């Protein structure tokens, strides 16, 4: 099997992941790599429908465990239908959020417990942890300001949580970075976009070179 690389991108709201990912895809394709850029929750019709249910601002009564299970269900379908086939074709899969979002948002910030949320997600991913994860480090207030000044960006149910929740999300990520030291690569996302992109690109090239040795 010609196995590609699975790279995930994480961070608080408005950190710049989606913006950098678009630039990264263009750069990697220019270098001749086969790339799949996708996102969670979503990336395929079933998971995009689950995304609508989770993120609709109308669904204010959603129980935290229901929320965690829906993210895990969307993850499972997206992996089976899209991510695994692309990896089998040797693609570099760039995924905007993955399991660490569930661990930080549902496990830590919602208070369900990182270990508990990890258990349901291990059932969903069957051992397919990312090869590497980029964490875009930003003060949640700065990220939320970026989102509110972007008129094209809808504010979803999770964005609308209070500031305390968003600070907890960041704390949750700090826990994960301690837990999975070798996998995480931290990028200062408060810098200017060209610098954020350059730092990501340099680290990613290093990761790809090490894999090819
Ligand atoms: N380094 C940067 N400096 C200033 N603004 C930025 C930077 N990177 C991205 N932005 C802007 O911030 C906003 C949010 O960026 P983006 O959608 O890429 O973030 P995100 O991490 O994907 O957010 P979310 O996970 O909440 O969807 C956009 O308007 C984008 O143009
Ligand atoms: C995968 C995943 C996501 N979330 C949250 C994080 C964001 O608030 C939204 C997704 O919106 P984005 O604009 O695509 O970043 O969902 C979560 O709480 N748990 C997860 O597993």
Automatic annotation (TrEMBL):
<keyword id="KW-0418">Kinase</keyword>
<dbReference type="InterPro" id="IPR039430">
    <property type="entry name" value="Thymidylate_kin-like_dom"/>
</dbReference>
<dbReference type="GO" id="GO:0004798">
    <property type="term" value="F:dTMP kinase activity"/>
</dbReference>
<dbReference type="InterPro" id="IPR027417">
    <property type="entry name" value="P-loop_NTPase"/>
</dbReference>
<dbReference type="InterPro" id="IPR018094">
    <property type="entry name" value="Thymidylate_kinase"/>
</dbReference>
<dbReference type="Pfam" id="PF02223">
    <property type="entry name" value="Thymidylate_kin"/>
</dbReference>
<comment type="similarity">
    <text>Belongs to the thymidylate kinase family.</text>
</comment>
<feature type="domain" description="Thymidylate kinase-like">
    <location>
        <begin position="9"/>
        <end position="197"/>
    </location>
</feature>
<protein>
    <recommendedName>
        <fullName>Thymidylate kinase</fullName>
        <ecNumber>2.7.4.9</ecNumber>
    </recommendedName>
</protein>
<keyword id="KW-0067">ATP-binding</keyword>
<feature type="binding site">
    <location>
        <begin position="11"/>
        <end position="18"/>
    </location>
    <ligand>
        <name>ATP</name>
    </ligand>
</feature>
<comment type="function">
    <text>Phosphorylation of dTMP to form dTDP in both de novo and salvage pathways of dTTP synthesis.</text>
</comment>
<keyword id="KW-0808">Transferase</keyword>
<keyword id="KW-0547">Nucleotide-binding</keyword>
<keyword id="KW-0545">Nucleotide biosynthesis</keyword>
<dbReference type="InterPro" id="IPR018095">
    <property type="entry name" value="Thymidylate_kin_CS"/>
</dbReference>
């Amino acid at each position: 099997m010609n196995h590609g690389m699975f790279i995930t991108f994480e961070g608080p709201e408005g950190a710049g992941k989606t913006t950098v990912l678009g630039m990264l895809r263009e750069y990697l394709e220019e270098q001749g790599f086969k790339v799949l850029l996708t996102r969670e929750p979503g990336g395929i019709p079933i998971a995009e429908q689950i995304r609508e249910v989770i993120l609709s601002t109308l669904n204010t009564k959603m129980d935290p465990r229901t929320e965690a299970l829906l993210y895990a269900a969307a993850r499972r379908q997206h992996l089976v239908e899209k991510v695994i086939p692309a990896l089998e074709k040797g693609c570099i899969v760039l995924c905007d959020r993955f399991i660490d979002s569930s661990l930080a948002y549902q496990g830590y910030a919602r208070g369900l417990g990182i270990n508990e949320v990890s258990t349901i997600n291990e059932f969903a991913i069957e051992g397919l942890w990312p090869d590497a994860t980029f964490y875009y480090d930003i003060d949640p207030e700065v990220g939320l300001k970026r989102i509110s000044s972007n008129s094209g960006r809808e504010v979803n149910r999770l964005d609308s949580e209070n500031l305390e929740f968003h600070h907890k999300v960041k704390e949750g990520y700090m826990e994960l970075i301690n837990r999975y030291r070798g996998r995480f690569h931290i990028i200062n996302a408060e810098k200017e976009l060209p610098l954020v992109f350059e730092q990501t690109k340099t680290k990613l090239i290093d990761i790809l070179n090490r894999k090819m040795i």
